[in-house]
Specification:
About 15% of the residues lie in helices and about 40% in strands. It has 1 helix and 9 strands. The strands form 2 sheets. Strands 4, 5, 7, 8 and 9 form a 5-stranded antiparallel beta sheet that branches. The protein starts with a helix and ends with a strand.
Length: about 120
């Protein structure tokens, strides 16, 4: 009887693990990294942009979808509001197998500070 219960429990745990989606996300940072960062979650096609610096400047994400991971010539931009320690999320509709994105912070007195481009599964 004990072995039957153990077998049933093993099967139930296995089924539970199969039904839970794996968390799949990636993170990109501004340069320097203290200004902000963004994550892209492949499970729900959601970007989250974080403003990590209390400098009064807004952060934004440049992003594009492609199948190669190449740095895009054209891209979409999403700007978040200014806020020390704030975050903002939005969902996108992937049009290819990869999302390529970078995070930037607006700089009033010179060029914006952008991190490097990165890519992950869309």
């Amino acid at each position: 009887m004990k072995s039957r219960i153990a077998t049933v429990l093993v099967v139930l745990v296995g089924l539970l693990q199969l039904s839970l989606p794996a968390l799949a996300s990636s993170t990109q940072y501004t340069n320097p990294i203290t200004y902000g960062h963004a994550t892209y979650n492949t499970n729900d096609n959601k970007f989250t942009l974080y403003d990590d610096e209390c400098d009064g400047n807004y952060n934004y994400v440049n992003y594009a979808f492609n199948n190669t991971g190449a740095i895009p010539g054209t891209y979409s931009t999403h700007q978040a509001g200014v806020g020390c320690g704030s975050s903002e999320w939005w969902t996108v509709n992937p049009t290819a197998s990869l999302v390529v994105y970078r995070v930037c912070v607006y700089n009033t007195f010179g060029p914006d500070h952008c991190g490097s481009w990165g890519s992950t599964d869309a």
